[in-house]
Design brief:
Shape: rod-shaped
Helix content: 25-40%
CATH topology of the largest domain: Glycoprotein, Type 4 Pilin
CATH superfamily of the largest domain: Glycoprotein, Type 4 Pilin
Structural class: mainly alpha
Largest sheet: 3 strands, antiparallel
Low-confidence stretches: none
Distance between the termini: 98 Å
Mean pLDDT: 80
CATH class of the largest domain: Alpha Beta
Strand order of the largest sheet: 1-2-3
């Protein structure tokens, strides 16, 4: 008689009856619950792929946000400040005076009622480079040019963001 099939009372059961009742053979190996190393490695690989895609997309959003911030400054914010300066003093700041004239009164300028921007830190683009200013401008000869050198921090390249 096969001694590997016992009922709850310790009596031996024939193999077909034991199989029918769901009895386990003592010779069968039990499988431990949990994940295999292969399953864990696959899960880690999937997480790495998802994180890589997410970081790549977030970087694109960040770069676009920087460009939009620079564009907003050179087209709207500085325009308002320069118009207030011009209204008070009669002219735009000269190229030599630059945008600092919006924060600190230039020598020899009467009726300056600034500062026209809240802080000098606003005069730097998102890449921590001073905004460029020229009056009269090359692109706007009857007004001024204001631009950011862009992410490459070099003026006169394709990534410049200006008010033209």
């Amino acid at each position: 008689m096969n001694t590997s099939f016992l009922n709850n009372d310790g009596n031996y059961l024939p193999r077909p009856v034991a199989a029918f009742l769901g009895a386990r053979s003592s010779s069968r190996r039990r499988i431990a619950p949990g994940f295999t190393l292969t399953e864990i490695l696959i899960a880690i690989a999937l997480v790495v792929i998802i994180v890589t895609v997410a970081v790549t997309n977030l970087n694109g959003v960040y770069v676009t946000g920087q460009e939009n911030a620079a564009r907003l400054f050179v087209t709207d914010e500085v325009e308002t400040a320069l118009l207030s300066y011009r209204t008070d003093t009669g002219n735009y700041p000269t190229t030599a005076q630059g945008l600092r004239a919006l924060v600190e009164q230039p020598a020899g300028v009467a009726n300056w009622k600034g500062p026209y921007v809240k802080s000098g830190a606003k005069l730097q683009d998102p890449w921590n480079t001073d905004y460029n200013y020229a009056c009269p401008g090359n692109h706007n000869p009857k007004g001024y040019d204001c631009w950011s050198s862009g992410s490459d921090k070099t003026s006169g390249t394709t990534d410049d963001i200006g008010n033209w």
